[in-house]
């Protein structure tokens, strides 16, 4: 008997002091049949904090059955509420609803209890998040607080304060909301709440601070949450604390550690909460996109989307970086149109400004900047804009003023954005503002000031590993290290051809086209980077080889009995690999080549005039013409190659 009692006593003692890993290990050594309903409840909690959700659910279901058998309605209701939460997080909404209804039935005839307060909290959260009824949510949170006060439940009280604070923030009453969140979170830090309640309070506070641009406050509470996790010997609310930590690290510029934290969080969260896991993958995508790892970012955004989180604005900014301006415009426009809540729109509008400018749509850019400023002004903290929000507004204005060639006004706006981001302690955002400020200074005639800002931005980008931005700065400073010639091909009217020929004939025609294009690229020593829809993206060490390939492709297709019309564009410029040696290329040179290809007509080879520098005149060219290309600030001079 003593062999049974000792582990059970150890397990109960560990659970009482919220040492959940120790409790889980101790309960595992206890004969299952000896566990009471309360033991099973504690065992489930220990499994939950140890990252074992399936096991936690199993123990909680057994605890529910044990409480029911003992006619303990409150205990059974408590387990039903916990199980509803578990299934809600993993996206099993019908099951979650069933457990919630079960809890309501059990509590209907019971006197006031903490469980009634927990039930009110769930209804309040549904009113706030699912229904968007903030007034009703505040009313329910107040009811929960008062009920908890009457029954002496500190956990429900602080959760109700947190929820009420979050509701105020969503309603634009920032100061009132933050004051309530600070009060509740200070209580969590003092250790007078249960682990689950404290974790929820921390998460609500940190995410709310981030939403209103108060990144310093968010960082302070993140550090407090990390100390709490370490003291409790847990990894977070499972995984959620790691995501908050990753976001703070990314903002501070520690990208490798931020990615490692986010990956660990997703692994811990994958069975617990689908939406928070999706947010973790989105964070991974944001880090990789900034590093220029396009394939890795694409994968992370795709996973985030599969888990139910729209991967915006990151995915549209990725498309812009890839030179796919039309796709970027379509993605961000659709996302902004679908976002109703002001804070959700605010996360997308700065990207909308940047992408609209790249597309040459200054009217849309101005409208997005105006809305950004209106929302920011409605979410002031202490009658002042949050520094990060203020920086965002001035950066958007500066980008538009640059596009309008109002250099002096652009300098003033971008100086403000740089200084604000620097005050926030966000090196990447500061460097982006510096890069644009350097351009504004240079265009205004102050070459020295422009060089100072560009050099400062370059140093930051190099330290962070922001390869795309580093390449842009080097191009602006005339320090292109890797210059190649890029060639894009594309079948014209492929949809019409498919409709005309039918599937089988189109497949044979496309296979022959692919074979001829690949052969021409290989024979000239080029590299097929990837296929792009109905065309190819290829890279060459010198422009002569690229032009020879373009001519060979057109002549080979012309010699076929039936062949599609193809347009080809080429440009020489700086670029960088976006990953290992088998990966894609990124940089302005690739983007310009892609846009030149899109500007060509059927059967045309269109090449930038600078690409022809140093190339022997073994072919005839047309008169030069100027093309305004989407996403390219200055017009580009091009010529058509006579290949016939």
Topology:
Elements lengths: L1 H15 L3 H8 L9 H13 L3 H17 L3 H17 L3 H15 L6 H17 L3 H18 L2 H17 L3 H16 L5 H17 L3 H18 L7 H13 L2 H15 L4 H18 L2 H13 L7 H8 L3 H14 L3 H17 L3 H16 L9 H17 L3 H18 L2 H17 L3 H18 L2 H10 L6 E9 L2 H8 L1 H21 L3 E6 L2 E6 L2 H16 L7 E9 L1 E2 L7 E2 L1 H12 L5 E4 L11 E2 L3 E3 L8 E7 L2
Parallel strand pairs: 4-7
Antiparallel strand pairs: 1-3, 1-4, 2-3, 5-6, 7-10, 8-10, 9-10
Helix pairs in contact: 1-2, 2-3, 3-4, 4-5, 5-6, 7-8, 7-9, 8-9, 9-10, 9-11, 10-11, 11-12, 12-13, 13-14, 13-15, 14-15, 15-16, 15-17, 17-18, 18-19, 19-20, 19-21, 20-21, 21-22, 21-23, 22-23, 23-24, 24-25, 26-27, 27-28
What does this protein look like?
By secondary structure, the chain is of the alpha+beta class. Among the domains are: 235-311, Alpha Horseshoe (Serine Threonine Protein Phosphatase 5, Tetratricopeptide repeat); 338-476, Serine Threonine Protein Phosphatase 5, Tetratricopeptide repeat, CATH 1.25.40.10; 483-642, Nucleotide cyclase, GGDEF domain (Alpha-Beta Plaits, 2-Layer Sandwich). 68% of the residues lie in helices and 8% in strands. It contains 29 helices and 10 strands. Strands 1, 2, 3, 4, 7, 8, 9 and 10 form an 8-stranded mixed β-sheet that branches. A two-stranded antiparallel sheet has the order 5-6.
């Amino acid at each position: 008997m003593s062999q049974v009692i000792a582990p059970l006593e150890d397990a109960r003692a560990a659970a009482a002091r919220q040492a959940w890993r120790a409790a889980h290990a101790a309960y595992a050594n206890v004969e299952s049949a000896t566990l009471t309903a309360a033991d099973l409840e504690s065992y489930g909690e220990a499994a939950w904090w140890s990252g074992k959700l399936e096991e936690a659910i199993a123990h909680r279901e057994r605890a529910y059955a044990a409480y029911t058998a003992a006619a303990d309605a409150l205990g059974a209701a408590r387990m039903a509420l916990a199980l509803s939460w578990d299934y809600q997080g993993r996206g099993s909404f019908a099951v979650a609803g069933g457990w919630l209804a079960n809890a309501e039935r059990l509590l209907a005839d019971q006197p006031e209890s903490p469980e009634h307060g927990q039930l009110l909290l769930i209804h309040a959260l549904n009113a706030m998040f699912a229904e968007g009824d903030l007034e009703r949510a505040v009313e329910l949170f107040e009811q929960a607080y008062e009920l908890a006060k009457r029954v002496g439940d500190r956990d429900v009280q602080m959760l109700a304060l947190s929820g009420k604070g979050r509701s105020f923030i969503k309603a634009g009453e920032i100061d009132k909301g933050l004051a309530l969140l600070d009060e509740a979170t200070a209580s969590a830090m003092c250790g007078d709440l249960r682990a689950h309640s404290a974790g929820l309070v921390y998460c609500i506070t940190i995410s709310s601070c981030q939403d209103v641009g108060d990144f310093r406050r968010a960082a302070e509470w993140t550090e407090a949450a990390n100390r709490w996790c370490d003291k409790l010997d847990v990894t977070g609310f499972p995984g959620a604390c790691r995501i908050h930590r990753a976001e703070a690290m990314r903002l501070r510029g520690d990208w490798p550690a931020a990615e490692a934290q986010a990956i660990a969080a997703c692994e811990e969260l994958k069975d617990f909460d689908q939406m928070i896991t999706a947010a973790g993958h989105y964070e991974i995508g944001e880090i990789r996109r900034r590093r220029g790892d396009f394939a890795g970012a694409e994968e992370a955004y795709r996973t985030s989307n599969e888990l139910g989180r729209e991967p915006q604005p990151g995915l549209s900014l990725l498309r812009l970086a890839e030179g796919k301006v039309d796709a970027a415009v379509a993605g961000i426009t659709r996302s902004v149109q679908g976002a109703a809540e002001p804070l959700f729109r605010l996360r997308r509008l700065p990207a909308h400004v940047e992408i609209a400018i790249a597309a040459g749509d200054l009217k849309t850019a101005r409208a997005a900047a105006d809305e950004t400023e209106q929302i920011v002004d409605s979410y002031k903290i202490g009658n002042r804009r949050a520094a990060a929000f203020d920086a965002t507004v001035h950066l958007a204005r500066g980008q538009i003023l640059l596009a309008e060639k109002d250099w002096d006004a652009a300098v003033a706006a971008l100086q403000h954005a740089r200084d604000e981001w620097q005050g926030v302690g966000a090196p990447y955002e500061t460097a982006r503002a510096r890069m644009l400020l350097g351009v504004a200074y240079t265009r205004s005639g102050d070459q020295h000031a422009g060089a100072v800002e560009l050099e400062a931005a370059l140093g930051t980008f190099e330290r962070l590993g922001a390869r795309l931005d580093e390449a842009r700065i080097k191009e602006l400073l005339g320090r292109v290290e890797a210059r190649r010639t890029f060639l894009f091909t594309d079948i014209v009217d492929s949809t019409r051809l498919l409709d005309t020929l039918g599937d089988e004939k189109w497949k044979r025609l496309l296979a022959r086209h692919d074979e001829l294009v690949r052969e021409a690229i290989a024979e000239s020593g080029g590299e097929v980077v990837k296929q792009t829809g109905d065309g190819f993206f290829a890279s060459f060490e010198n422009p002569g080889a690229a032009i020879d390939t373009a001519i060979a492709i057109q002549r080979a297709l012309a010699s076929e009995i039936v062949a599609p019309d193809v347009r080809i564009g080429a440009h020489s410029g700086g670029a960088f690999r976006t990953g290992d040696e088998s990966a894609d290329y990124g940089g302005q040179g690739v983007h310009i080549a892609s846009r030149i290809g899109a500007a060509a007509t059927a059967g045309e080879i269109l090449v930038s005039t600078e690409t022809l520098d140093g190339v022997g005149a073994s072919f005839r060219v047309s008169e030069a013409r100027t093309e305004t290309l989407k996403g390219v600030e200055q017009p580009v001079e091009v010529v058509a190659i006579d290949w016939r």
